[in-house]
Amino acid sequence: MTPTHRRRDRRGGGVLGILGELLLTLGALLLLFLVWQLWWTDVIADREQAGIIDGLEQEWGELDAEEIAPRQEGPPPIPETPQDTMVWGKMHVPAFDRPQFPLAEGVSLEKVLNVKGAGHYPETALPGEVGNFSVAGHRNTYGRVFEDIARLETGDAIVVETSDAFYVYEVSESLVVQPADVEVIAPTPGRPEVEPTAQMLTLTACHPMYSARERYIVHAEFAYWTDRADGIPEALATGEEED
């Protein structure tokens, strides 16, 4: 082999070595990113949400889980419109592995969904109000408050807690839609041209898991409300509704 050929082989080997090191480095960075995205964001969000819930319980007063509040007659109290990004409630979903989480105003990723829990779509109804009270949440990463959304079945309870009341909804429908199908959060879900007459709740999350290709939607109908001062609603004591 001539000296020229040896130099070419050395140069070729050097290039391949550098390329291999770059690929190893990129692989390590990708692995670190996946660990951060799929695990560490949950750790941070869980810690933040636990602190938020503790703060709400201190502000509102802890409840006796043994005291079952009676269903109230008449229209429920409607919360005042919250300020943007403000945490103003909790959501309880007995069918979820993570049964409670904070509820904040707005659906900003950076200011709400990635750090505080579920987010109320501004301009949609408030709990107990005629219209469509609509809420977004992550299905994976950042606390994944809606991870189990596809587990919900007709009749399952979804409970919203504020400083004054519990609002109990029952699941009526689940469906998968395209991201552009925003009529699911219209005052009358699916029919934006129709004036609302019912008190509805809608949950929205990305679908399928680890993808934002579609949206998983759950609609629920208002069932009853209880005064928070009286204890917890029956739905949180049993995890299901009774006739």
UniProtKB/TrEMBL annotation:
Query: What are the GO MF terms of this UniProt record?
Result: hydrolase activity
Q: Does the keyword Membrane apply?
A: yes
Where do the catalytic residues lie?
138 (proton donor/acceptor), 206 (acyl-thioester intermediate)
Residue ranges annotated as transmembrane are: 12-39
Q: Which domain of life is it from?
A: Bacteria
UniProt keywords (A-Z) are:
Hydrolase, Membrane, Transmembrane, Transmembrane helix
Q: Which InterPro entries match?
A: Sortase (IPR005754), Sortase_Class_E (IPR053465), Sortase_dom-sf (IPR023365), Sortase_E (IPR042003)
Q: Does the keyword Membrane apply?
A: yes
Gene3D superfamilies (alphabetical): Sortase (2.40.260.10)
Q: From the Swiss-Prot or TrEMBL record, give the protein name.
A: Sortase family protein, LPXTG-site transpeptidase
